[in-house]
Amino acid sequence: MSENLEAFRKEVQDWLAENCPPSMRTPMPEDETVWGGRNATYKNRESKQWLDAMGAKGWTCPTWPKEYGGGGLSKEENKILQQELRRINARPALVSFGIMMLGPVLLEYGNEEQKQEHIPKIVRGEIRWCQGYSEPGAGSDLAGLQTRAIEDGDDYVINGQKVWTSYANYADWIFCLVRTDTSVKHEGISFILFDMTTKGVTTKPIKLISGSSPFCETFFDDVRVPKANMVGRVNGGWEIAKRLLQHERSSISASGFTGGSSVPMQDVAKEYSGEANGRIADGSLRESIAQHRMNAQAFQLTLKRSAEESKAGMGPGAASSIFKSYGAELNKMKYDLLMEAMGTQALGWEGDGFDAEELNVTRSWLRSKANSIEGGTTEINLNVVAKRVLGLNDHQ
Amino acid sequence: MGMVLTEEQQLLKDSARDFIEAKSPVTAFRALRDNDDPKGYSPDLWKEMVDLGWAGILIPEEFGGLDFGMQGLGLVLEEAGKTLTASPLVSTVLTCGSALMLGGTQAQKQEFLPKIAAGDVLMSLGLEENAHHAPTAISTKAEKSGDGYTISGKKTFVLDGHIANQLIVVARTGGTGEDINGITLFLVPTNAPGVSIQRTTMVDSRNAANIELNNVSVGADAVLGSVDGGTDLLEQVLDRARIGLAAEMLGSAQHVFDETLAYIKERKQFGVVIGQFQALQHRAAKMFTELELCRSVVMEALTAVDEKANNVPLLASLAKGKVSEAFHLIAREGVQMHGGVGMTDEYDVGLYLKRSAVVEQAFGGPRYHSDRYAQLEGF
Q1: Which of A308, A345, B77, B113 satisfies CB 3.0 to 4.6 Å to B3 for a cystine?
Q2: pTM given for the model
């Protein structure tokens, strides 16, 4: 067994030596992230080469079944692959909602045709997916969604509006929650897939307080979608929707809310607010930063504990229910403290007087405010802990 | 242990829980308090704990112990913390036992470790001299006289001081003020001429004392560790004490949280149980979150000691700081969520509030430890 694994490690090392291009072993600038899709453009030619190599091998989705183009690796083999990728500082070949969200639920709930059709294209990065969940009137109360799908012959005709659709303007396909029964709430929702180039689909980017536009409003005006595109049974979409959210939340917390400043906060504080005897001069700021660092370490240790528990076959422990909300609040606090430490130098919007790192902190600070809203608000997450973990019932 | 208990550790935890629940429920602690028990702990209960091997749980087998390490002791302390069990576990076993194991000569170990394991000696660390934890702010003096030393000074907040047979006294053999150098640890029998001990009645009804040393003579063999270089040893001892105490506090915090949760599921107002109100639900979820974080930190810190990791000081401050804050929060929220009955002596929640205030300050409170954490991290 372990001999086989060592042979596998050697195989991985040899393959990476040959197939991972030199620039793919360097830190990745934000604008070189590879999302794939029909209209993908590659700022760095080697990104495409790396994606094609990893995609052909199935290693963009290492543990998905081989028959659908995945890597077919066992958990242990995948661990080795990830170790070897980290060892050479390899960039992720592909980042996609297909991998993080849709793929796992399609493998679980999709029929054979759907899996054959969509999974290989996710693995190879040929189709870029977006998520049609939230609506103007359905945010935290997601199941209150109103986008209608009405049967018409072999099709559904879809009308309605989605919002906060990440990168809908770049996406090729959408996985979408629609209402197929108006007489009930959760039991009237279905999960359906369609092409964003279908007649009647339009998108409009939303400009955020940070100045960027990662999200869109997406409108459906008599969009005809074949019935065969429905995943699971009619009115059975809520279960799939929730499962997908679990994958989304775990990938959000696993990513550790990265981005923004890479300089440790305490060094930023020393530089901008002053140093005395090797310490941050401002005692109150120092205390706040220490508190934050301690909370961050406690959080990291809890992620580690949860990973060890699941490795020991204990299933996701109660601790995992707190990850999303706690991680979000930590990240928001991090940027608030960075702002405080940097003073007026963190208040620039653009242009002269501020360097790139400073401007980045301002924008990331604004961006971080969404951490406790997207993918389930902190309030909803606390409700979930109170209800499911602590057994406190709803007020009727 | 790492982050998951081994089978052996799970067995220890289960048997500790069963024993504590049967022999030392909160009512046992109440009885000690209400009877103004002069000892402040139950020798009979302690005898049973000794028979279970708990007094020697840290001590190597060659000195008559079980050698279960800090992870083993941590599990026992956590269970003891749940019911506010008063025992010499923290003073004798955790703190002074560690001091002897880390700093004792072969002869000192031979003399004291088997006695600790057999329950034949109770020991206390005489450290603090001020109202705040300050390990190097020592003015108790030990002056060379003949082959030995003469010690004079005053110690306060000496846990279990009035029941101890033996003290470990932190004294200054050199330097002044808060100098790191010039500190030495001494083994001093409590019956030595010049030692006077005054029990202090604390808000948590647990044992502490003020101790005065007036020209107390000890031999050269009373020195524990090195002369003038005691700070290193003291810090190592304190880190273990902080981590072990954090394990006990985790048990207390978990218990008072569980009690509070049970209460808000049963107390009705406006025709519904108050646990249905979101104003309480979110606060309960946040307390739960803090407990989960504390559990991870405590397990990591206990394991780090046993594995001789080099980040024990950082983890000790993380554990003592985080768990102190969590217990502080949960005890106060516990009283608030109990409402009026939370203010009555009849309900246990008040006992935990009182305990949280005392144990929070022992070996340094949250501010002390966040500052130390920052210092250790270079800021």
Answers
A1: A308
A2: 0.87
Same domain, B245 and B368: yes
Q: What is the mean pLDDT of residues A126-148?
A: 94
Mean local confidence (pLDDT), A102-129? 97
Instruction: Catalogue all structural domains in chain A, each as residue range(s) with its CATH number.
Output: 2-95 (1.10.540), 129-235 (2.40.110.10), 256-389 (1.20.140.10)
Look at A294 and B286 and tell me if their CB atoms are within 8 Å: no
Q: Are both B33 and B159 inside the same structural domain?
A: no
Give the tokens for residue B35. Answer: 């009877």
Give me the catalytic one of A77, A84, A135, A248: A248
Nearest to B282 among A318, A386, A396 (CB): A386
Q: Mark which residues 322-351 of B lie under 8 Å from A by CB.
A: 322
Please check whether residue B358 touches A, CB under 8 A: no
The CATH number that applies at residue B93 is 1.10.540.10
Residue B1 lies in a domain: no
Rounded alpha-carbon distances, angstroms, from residue B206 to B87, B203, B244, B359: 9, 8, 17, 10
The answer for residues whose C-beta is within 8 angstroms of residue A277's C-beta and 6 or more apart is none
Task: Please tell me whether residues B242 and B128 are part of one structural domain.
Answer: no
So what's the pLDDT on residue A375? 79
A126: annotated active-site residue? no
CATH classification at residue B236:
1.20.140.10
Q: Is the pLDDT of residue A257 over 90?
A: no
Give the mean model confidence (pLDDT) for residues B91-98.
98
Contact status of B373 with chain A (Cβ, < 8 Å): yes
Together in a domain, B112 and B207: no
Q: Which domain holds residue B146?
A: 124-229
Q: B264: which chain A residues are within 8 Å (Cβ-Cβ)? A: 392
Whether residues B80 and B159 fall in one domain: no
Backbone angles phi, psi at A76, to 5 degrees: -65, -40
CA pair distance B104, B166, nearest whole angstrom:
14
- Say which of B275, B285, B379 has its CB closest to residue A270: B379
Residue A10 is predicted with a pLDDT of 95
DSSP SS3 for B154: strand
What pLDDT is stored for residue A22 in this prediction?
95
Name the band, by pLDDT with cuts 50, 70 and 90, for residue A248.
confident
Beta carbons of B322 and A279 less than 8 Å apart: no
Domain closes at, from B74, B92, B121? B121
Please give the pLDDT value at position A316.
Answer: 64
Average pLDDT, integer, range A177-195: 97
> Residue A166 burial (CB < 10 Å; 0-12/13-18/19+)?
middle
Which residues of chain A lie closer than 8 angstroms to B322, CB-CB? Answer: 294-295, 298
pLDDT band (50, 70, 90) for residue A3: confident
Q: Do the Cβ atoms of A322 and B288 come within 8 Å?
A: yes
